Each structure stands twice: as structure tokens, then as C-alpha cells.
Amino acid sequence: MQFISSDTSVWIDFSLIHNTTLPFRLSYTYVMSRDAVEDELLSPEGLGAELMSCGLRPVDITIDEFLLAEQYGIRYPQLSKYDRLALSIAKQRRFILLTGDGALRKAALQQGVTILGTLGILDQLWEEGKVTAEELLECLKQLNALNGGVIRLPKAELERRLAQFTNETQLPNKS
Fold first, then answer.
1. What is the number of structural domains in the chain?
2. Measured CA distances, 26 to 1, 132, 142 (Å)
3. Cα R_g (the chain), whole angstroms
4. Which of 10, 29, 43, 69 is a plausible cystine mate for 88, CB 3.0–4.6 Å?
5. Other CB atoms closer than 10 Å to residue 170's CB: what's the count?
6. Residue 23 has what DSSP assignment?
């Protein structure tokens, strides 16, 4: 089983489309710093409790992770303290980083940390047969409808997937 250190952005995406359980169909163990769970997963109300009931594991950070997060604060001042903690956990423990935050993704790439986001989760769900084409298309439609606000996914990538799964779910015409 692989471990993933997560920030809140991807969870918010799935929460807004009322599908927080979807990522837990994959064989990952998702972790988040205990402080982030307690402080950042407050909105929408009940999100933290919902994710923990699905399997999200709050973890205590080590002193090395804390110190690395402090260094990231100097190097990447645009990152929140919880983003820095998610990155330091991923870096120190050699976990994948789950995020959709552009600045955090850029920092992770500079640090050699593997990244996964909302669309990557959906791709893996499809590749592993954990969702039907109809389920996936509905998620993509909902994400697209909300894109540009709280949800900020790459428009071209989202549209490419929408076109692909629209074609896959079309039924033959009945004559």
C-alpha cells in the first residue's frame, strides 16, 4: 500500500461535487498532519470528520518534518504552513503529495516529490476499474461546472477528459 500526504485542495474539490469517498476506492493510505485536519478541514462543515471516517489518517509530524517545513517557509513564502507541512511529510517519508495548489505543486517538483491531483485520482480510478464511465463523466461535468471558482483545474485537461468520456458513455441510437 502506498501512502499519500495531502493538503486540503483536492479534498475540497471532491467535497464540492459530493464525492469525498471516491479517492478511498484506490489502494492508498491518505495522511494529513493532525494540525491541518483540526484547523483546515473545518469548511465545508464536517469535512474533516467525513474524511477520517473514510480512512484519512491524521499524523503527528516529526521534529525533522517541522524543521523542513520551516525551511520551506523561507524558500517558498507563498505556501501556507499546512502546505509546507504536507510537503515536508511527503519529502521526509517519501510519500506522494496530493494537491491541486499550483504553488505547492511547483515547490514539490523542485523538491523531487511525486504529485497527484484531482484529475490524477480520477484517471487512476478509471484505469483501475474503480468507477464506471458514467460515474466518471458525472464527476467531470460537476468539476467543470464549478471550475474557475474554488475549483481550479486545468481547463484543457478537464475538457479533454469530458470529450473522451462523453464519447464512451453515448449509447447507440434506437431506431
1. 2
2. 10, 14, 21
3. 17
4. 69
5. 9
6. G
Q: What are phi and psi of 55, to 5 degrees?
A: 135, -5
pTM for this entry: 0.87
Does the residue 124 lie in any domain?
no
7 closest CA partner among 38, 35, 32, 42: 32
Whether residue 23 is preceded by a cis peptide bond, meaning omega within 30 degrees of 0, is: no
The grid coordinates listed for 154 are 486545468
Q: Is residue 32 left, alpha or beta, with left meaning phi > 0 and alpha meaning psi from -120 to 50? A: beta
Using CA atoms, how far apart are residues 175 and 173, in angstroms rounded to an integer? 6
User: Per residue in 9-56, pLDDT tens?
Assistant: 899 899 999 999 999 999 999 999 988 888 766 556 778 888 889 999
CATH of residue 46: 3.40.50.1010
